[in-house]
Amino acid sequence: MYLDTDARWPDGFDEVYRLGESVMSRVASTETPQPILAIVERRLATLAPGTGWVVVADRIADPGNLGTIIRSAEAAGASRIVLTAGTVDAFNPKVIRASAGAVFHVGIVEDATLEDVREGGYRLIGTTSHGGLRAQDYRQVDLRGAIALVLGNEAHGLESTAPIDEWVTIPHSGRSESLNVAMAGTILSFAIATQHEAPTAGE
Amino acid sequence: MYLDTDARWPDGFDEVYRLGESVMSRVASTETPQPILAIVERRLATLAPGTGWVVVADRIADPGNLGTIIRSAEAAGASRIVLTAGTVDAFNPKVIRASAGAVFHVGIVEDATLEDVREGGYRLIGTTSHGGLRAQDYRQVDLRGAIALVLGNEAHGLESTAPIDEWVTIPHSGRSESLNVAMAGTILSFAIATQHEAPTAGE
Lengths: 203, 203
Hints:
CATH topology of the largest domain in chain A: Alpha/beta knot
Shape of chain A: globular
Helix content of chain A: 10-25%
Strand content of chain A: 15-25%
CATH superfamily of the largest domain in chain A: SPOUT methyltransferase, trefoil knot domain
Structural class of chain A: alpha/beta
CATH class of the largest domain in chain A: Alpha Beta
Order of helices and strands of chain A: HEHEHEHEEEEH
Oligomer: homodimer
Largest sheet of chain A: 7 strands, parallel
Radius of gyration of chain A: 19 Å
Number of domains of chain A: 2
């Protein structure tokens, strides 16, 4: 840890060191680092059925996309981010930066399969940019309860054989090809939050 | 323009050149460029009142953020993207790439002021991450008709004296500080699209 002022050491850290600029530039992974670094324990979570909704990143390759997915899911209130094998490491420095630290505020489950998530009691909502017969407008789908929003690989999407309970898509009126997976994750996470906040029938 | 196959020249281009790799690497602005380049005319638009809704980027500094804002606004059906003085150039190569080409599919209005937009007949919807007394949950605000969604600078937001008709915020339940401006623009653009598609009273 490096502090460039004479501020007192923050609470909760065992050891605090002041680093010279040349040391800082060697240990930091960016060219113009923020003036503080921390070594933190990597904590992983397990699926915890019965505690809300989760987002599943299925073979997401780009660190910026995964970081944004984590950031928006955490902000929208997801209880877990689940990574399948083939997804970039959630603790990759670029993911951590893109998540704006949200990766430390939400449970990360690694190396899970879609079958694990389903067996955990979640209804799997698969996303596709292709629309097609199976996919419904996300605004017409019931996103309440124990659901898992499944986002697929940037180039290939989800496998058509994935064990998905319901497919959703985001209709768009522009001429561009499609939204990217991070933007889709953001829109859908907040759509889920809205449905979870709304009173359910009988309440 | 460079083509690395023997495919025929695409329609609509006056002149097509095949470039060697070493030439390509000198003229391209990225280290591993896509195998095609184009020189295109920079076309600007003017505000066109009566043609839907617009997004205003007020002193947005980061090219990636502006590109994402343009991409999601275009996908959601905005008719114009309006840039105030101090916003990064919409035709900056990083903006073009982040927009995934959407910048060529929607009218870009440069160097406008918020007053210009209001005088154009738009109701200005200002976004803030601070909530506060004035800002309403975006899901409770009427976003139909000729509205301008105004997104502010990454560090400073919109000026509190900006001529805003209605302030909106995106409530979030996570522990992270806030969504970034590109994510907020994406969520709000699609919220506007949803309200514009819904039948209005009397229809």
